[in-house]
């Protein structure tokens, strides 16, 4: 979860799924802080989140999900919160 003002972005938490998600990502168990991410994943997540929020001019809270596989981060979706 994060929040942005169109310029700066505050990252509230990086959450890791610890089991496969079902129909909705909320169906899976998750942990904070992320337990199995290497030292490159979290900084990449935060960098991508900030860049995407700035590019989309997001103002307010938002949720963004990434796929992490073989220690690489892939963008999944951006969902502005209303």
Secondary-structure map:
Elements: E1 2-5, E2 9-11, E3 16-17, E4 30-31, H1 41-55, E5 59-69, E6 72-80
Antiparallel strand pairs: 1-2, 1-5, 3-4, 5-6
Which H/E pattern describes the elements? Answer: EEEEHEE
CATH classification class: Alpha Beta
Structural class: alpha+beta
Output mean pLDDT: 79
How would you describe this structure to a colleague?
With 82 residues, this protein is an alpha+beta fold. The chain has a single domain, classed as 2-Layer Sandwich (D-amino Acid Aminotransferase, Chain A, domain 1), CATH 3.30.470.20. Helix content is 18%, strand content 38%. The strands form 2 sheets. The protein has a 4-stranded antiparallel sheet with strand order 2-1-5-6, with helices on one face. A hairpin with a 3-residue loop joins strand 1 and strand 2. It starts with a strand and ends with a strand.
Short structural description:
The chain has one helix and six strands.
Q: What labels would you give this structure?
A:
82 residues; alpha+beta; D-amino Acid Aminotransferase, Chain A, domain 1; four-stranded antiparallel sheet; 6 strands
């Amino acid at each position: 979860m994060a929040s942005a003002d169109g310029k700066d972005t505050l990252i509230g938490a990086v959450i890791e799924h610890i089991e496969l998600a079902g129909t909705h990502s909320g169906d899976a168990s998750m942990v904070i802080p992320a337990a199995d991410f290497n030292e490159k994943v979290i900084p990449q997540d935060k960098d991508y989140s900030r860049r995407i929020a700035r590019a989309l001019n997001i103002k307010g809270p938002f949720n963004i999900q990434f796929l992490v596989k073989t220690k690489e981060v892939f963008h999944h979706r951006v969902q502005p919160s209303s």
